[in-house]
Amino acid sequence: MHNVTSKDIGYVVDNRLCLSCGACAAACSKKAITLHETLGGYLYPKVDYLNCVHCGLCLKVCPGVQYNDRVHDAYLCVPHSESILEAYVGRSLDEEIYENAQSGGVVTGILKDMLQRNAVDAVLCAVMTHAIPPRGEAILIGNPHKLLQAQKSKYVPVPLLKNLREQLKVQNKIAVVGLPCHMQGLELLKSALPEIEDKIVLRIGLVCDRILTAKSIDWLTKQATEKPVSHIIYRDKTRSGYPGDPSVETNNGEIIMLKAADRMAIKDFFTPVRCRLCLDKLNVKADIVCGDPHGVEGVDRINGETLVLVRNERGKHVIEDVAGVGKIDLRSVSVATAVNGQCIDQRVRDWKAYLQAWKGLEMPLPEGVERQQVNGKKILKVFENDLKQGLTLDTYDKASVIYKAAAGWLRKKRLKIVVLDIFKIIRNVFVKIVCILIITIENKGA
Predict the structure, then answer these.
(1) pLDDT at 1 (0 to 100)
(2) How confident is the model over 345-356, as pLDDT tens digits?
(3) HSE-up of 35 (CA within 13 Å, CB side)?
(4) How do beta strands 229-236 and 306-310 pair?
(5) pLDDT digits (tens, 9 = 90+) for 350-397
(6) 236, 245 in Cβ contact below 8 A?
(7) Averaged over 280-292, what is the pLDDT?
(8) Is residue 314 classed exposed, middle or buried when 0-12, 13-18 and 19+ CB atoms within 10 A define those classes?
(9) Is the pLDDT of residue 65 over 50?
């Protein structure tokens, strides 16, 4: 086991605080850090101590082991809507992009326009590989026509930043599309790669409720087929309409559809533990943030649209430029409504509860969390159980045992839902009977 004085990323892995962002690998000038998938589907860094010079940079740039006060102030100290300049809902006007999009295709529409007019030289983003098994992967795209392959959410660990040191050497203007952990890692990387300040010209953040470990891909594909699967789309609106059901593609090209309920039902089983300790759903460090427009009225719920949150002047100028040339169609919505639709207040409550539960499990808290407001009510057992489940994923001895455990876990969850539904029906019937009795008694009294 490592301890914090050993000053390397091994401490983060040992204590399950890793976010799989890849910042540690980017910081290492000796290329002593590589990322490896665990049996449970976590993607964790590994240090080659033959090349390591013990500089401590990998730990210094890790967003998993520390909290950014400014990020959390945006959620805890003021109404979160105050950190957002403007909010929009809309879609790309490029029909190819829109039809292939998970929602409205706005992110791809912005990036395609910027590449075409040389506002950026390349886009750093994630794709889902066509491989057996499929996995999320970071890619640098310079051709606007190749952006289509990066559309749709991946929902699994992607070490987006791992090759950034080399990428900055050959590119002058890069746009980055990533999750909150990627954006926080990018901010911390400035200490090791100061050229980030000038070369990363746009940060497009994605709204993130949490990801699943990569093993969720294998479990989902096995629900569809026993054939080898080479690709998965988590939300395929081209086949089942918005918001889309999962589709898997076998190595011979056969497409098999699953239900979105299957993905959502197993989400808690495969959620990485560090995701439970993250508050930054709305990507504070991005210039522009995009996601689904939950809670916003007048949205196209058939074909899909994108929620766009503008966080700073740079993001505002980009939106004005792209909308001004007719590449995207946006309409203003209330910032408060947009934020409320993302259930941020509930996120804050859950975050505090998970931190307390994590501490109760005698796991080390990220640095800086003691300064946050995490003391409160007694922790419900459910939060502790969620964390224990995430910690258990790497304790199984083989993949088949994980799949069996997932199936058993899912059966119990569905049984609980059935029992709760029956209880609700009985309760509603009882309430109606009581109301009828009250009305009858009152009528007799009259």
Answers:
(1) 40
(2) 999 999 999 999
(3) 25
(4) unpaired
(5) 999 999 999 999 999 998 876 655 555 556 788 999 999 999 999 999
(6) yes
(7) 97
(8) middle
(9) yes
Q: In the β-sheet with 288-291, what is the strand arrangement from edge to edge?
A: 136-141, 122-128, 174-178, 200-206, 288-291, 306-310, 86-92, 328-332
The residue ranges of DSSP E strands in 327-418, in sequence order, are 328-332
Q: What is the pLDDT of residue 181?
A: 97
Is the C-alpha dihedral spanning 354, 359, 361, 364 positive or negative?
A: positive
pLDDT in tens, 71-88: 888 888 777 888 899 999
Q: List the structure tokens of 343.
A: 């259930």
Burial 248-261 (b: 16+ CB within 10 A, else e): bbbeeeeeeebeee
Phi, psi of 127 (to 5 degrees): -130, 160
Neighbours of 35 (CB within 10 A): 18
Mean pLDDT over 38-47 rounds to: 98
Residue 379 contacts residue 357 (beta carbons within 8 Å):
yes
Q: Which residues of 2-15 are buried (b: 16+ CB within 10 A; e: fewer)?
A: beeeebbbbbbbeb
**Domains in the chain: boundaries:** 83-336, 397-446
Q: Which of 126, 84, 60 is nearest to 284 (CA)?
A: 84
Dist CA 274 CA 211 (whole Å): 10
| Residue 128, token pair as written in the block | 């889902």
Distance between CA atoms of 412 and 58, rounded to whole angstroms? 41
β 86-92/136-141 pair status: unpaired
Q: Which residues of 282-313 are buried (b: 16+ CB within 10 A; e: fewer)?
A: bbbbbbbbbbbbeebeebeeeebbbbbbbbee
pLDDT value of residue 257: 94
Question: What is the helix, strand, coil percentage profile of the chain, to 5?
Answer: 45, 15, 35
Helix (H, G, I), strand (E, B) or coil at 183: helix
**What's the average model confidence in pLDDT over 191-211?**
97
Question: Confidence class of residue 4 from pLDDT cuts 50, 70 and 90?
Answer: very low
Cα(316)–Cα(297) distance, rounded to whole angstroms?
A: 23
pLDDT of residue 272: 98
Collapsed DSSP state (helix, strand, coil) of residue 234: strand
Q: Which two tokens stand for residue 67?
A: 């909290």
